[in-house]
């Protein structure tokens, strides 16, 4: 494993430097450690690159203005990382809202992104399961700032619980990541995801790219309606896989199946 900083972006690499590249993008309010359970399998065959686009931003640092947190801006930072690493061809894999960043990267760099895989990425705002009262308050500026200052490891752990249906051990990296993140980064990132989905649906965006698409969805997701994954079948050439008994975070809840499906998908579109 090689950990580096590229500008304000935290980058973790595994696998062989000369292997085909895979880019893993998680929700910006979660750490790259959420991918840990699938890394050993992926790194056997691929150069695996993980980016922490916003999580290392400290108060008063990082992108200036609200525009720095929107989905296209995050995708441009991911593209800059690829340039810095000398990667000119990659399969982009995104989890939840990270799937939006992966898609935006493909929109910006059609010659670089060979294929896109989405893991529990809602296709539209209509697919979102209504937030809890606490989450709605977090997205309200005044109440949100107060609640953010009052957060503790225990409240973070409880909030993260909706990301899992199967019993998992919540990584300490997730707690530390959330504790360190400024409220402004959280709020503007969430707004950026909502804006991206409100402009065009994910199937509409992917349908115009002409790329291989894999959609993995936990059937027991408590953040996005899993039945909504069916609309991705309207994307030409898209493959949709439902994971029974799995919630919002398949790479932690069922890493063996998730890694196997990703390996099969990447192999089908990667050069030998």
Give a brief outline of the structure.
The protein is an alpha/beta fold and 272 residues long. The protein is 39% helix and 17% strand.
What topology does this entry show?
Blueprint: E1 2-6, E2 9-14, E3 21-25, H1 39-43, E4 47-52, H2 71-85, E5 90-95, H3 98-108, E6 113-119, H4 133-138, H5 141-150, H6 153-160, H7 172-180, H8 183-199, H9 202-207, E7 213-218, E8 238-243, H10 250-253, H11 255-269
Parallel strand pairs: 3-4, 3-5, 5-6, 6-7, 7-8
Antiparallel strand pairs: 1-2, 2-4
Helix pairs in contact: 2-3
Question: Can you offer a commentary on this structure?
Answer:
There is one protein chain. The protein is of the alpha/beta class and 272 residues long. It is 39% helix and 17% strand. An eight-stranded mixed beta sheet has the order 1-2-4-3-5-6-7-8, with helices on both faces. A hairpin with a 2-residue loop joins strand 1 and strand 2. Helix 2 (71-85) packs across helix 3. The chain is globular and about 45 Å long. 42% of the residues are buried.
CATH architecture call: 3-Layer(aba) Sandwich
Share of helix, binned: 25-40%
Record field, number of beta strands: 8
**Overall number of structural domains:** 1
What key phrases describe this protein's structure?
single chain, 272 residues, Rossmann fold
């Amino acid at each position: 494993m090689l950990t580096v900083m590229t500008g304000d972006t935290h980058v973790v690499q595994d696998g062989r430097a000369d292997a085909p590249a895979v880019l893993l993008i998680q929700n910006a309010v979660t750490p790259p450690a959420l991918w840990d359970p699938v890394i050993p399998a992926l790194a056997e065959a691929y150069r695996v690159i993980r980016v922490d686009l916003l999580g290392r931003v400290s108060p008063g640092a990082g992108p200036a203005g609200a525009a720095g947190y929107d989905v296209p801006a995050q995708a441009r930072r991911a593209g800059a990382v690829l340039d810095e690493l000398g990667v000119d061809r990659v399969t982009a894999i995104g989890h939840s809202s990270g799937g939006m960043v992966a898609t935006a990267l493909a929109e910006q760099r059609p010659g670089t992104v060979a294929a896109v895989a989405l893991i529990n990425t809602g296709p539209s705002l209509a697919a979102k399961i209504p937030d809890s009262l606490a989450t709605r308050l977090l997205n309200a500026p005044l109440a949100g700032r107060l609640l953010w200052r009052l957060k503790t490891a225990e409240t973070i752990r409880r909030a993260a619980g909706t990301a899992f249906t199967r019993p998992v051990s919540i990584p300490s990296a997730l707690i530390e990541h959330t504790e360190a993140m400024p409220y402004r980064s959280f709020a503007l990132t969430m707004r950026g995801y909502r804006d991206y989905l409100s402009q065009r649906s994910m199937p509409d965006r992917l349908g115009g790219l002409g790329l291989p698409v894999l959609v993995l969805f936990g059937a027991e997701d408590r953040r996005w309606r899993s039945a909504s994954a069916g609309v991705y079948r309207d994307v030409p050439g898209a493959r949709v896989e439902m994971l029974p008994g799995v919630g919002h975070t398949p790479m932690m809840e069922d890493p063996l199946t998730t890694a196997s499906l990703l390996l099969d998908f990447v192999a089908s579109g990667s050069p030998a």
